């Protein structure tokens, strides 16, 4: 699985962000492994953090948890992943 965490500061233009993220996403696609990208677009309470998962069949559940002691809500995703099996010992 390829996991990528991203953050775009407010003074960072979307066009530059796209120029950086898109080539990395294409490179990750070539690995033919599941991809999870998580990040925040802007530091404001009106926008949610995002989580992108490819393929979407990996997603078991997702949602937003509202935290009463903070102005930030938690975006989450539960994935269907299997623990790799250990090779047999002789």
Automatic annotation (TrEMBL):
It comes from the Eukaryota. This is Endonuclease/exonuclease/phosphatase domain-containing protein. It comes from Pocillopora damicornis (Cauliflower coral).
